[in-house]
Design brief:
four-stranded mixed sheet; Beta Polymerase, domain 2
């Protein structure tokens, strides 16, 4: 899968699921996905790291790794 397509799937998760979290403030890509070209191939064993910003002063550390539409997402929380 192309990095661009994996980012689109991750964005969809943020819109469909992440944005519904209490105190959702925003989200951003984190980690190696930021250094890869959109036209690069993302390994099937690689994950896409997403930081979800919540306006809670003490969010849980992370949702962790899970499969969403054929990619591995690793979602962590960050207080605003």
């Amino acid at each position: 899968m192309l990095v661009k397509d994996a980012k689109d799937i991750a964005r969809k998760w943020v819109i469909d699921e992440g944005s519904k979290l209490p105190g959702f403030y925003g989200a951003f890509y984190h980690g190696s996905i930021n250094w890869l070209s959109d036209s690069s191939i993302l390994s099937t064993t690689s994950d896409v790291d997403i930081m979800v910003v919540l306006d809670d002063s003490n969010p849980s550390d992370k949702l962790g790794k899970f499969i969403y539409q054929d990619i591995i997402l690793e979602v962590s929380y960050l207080p605003s």
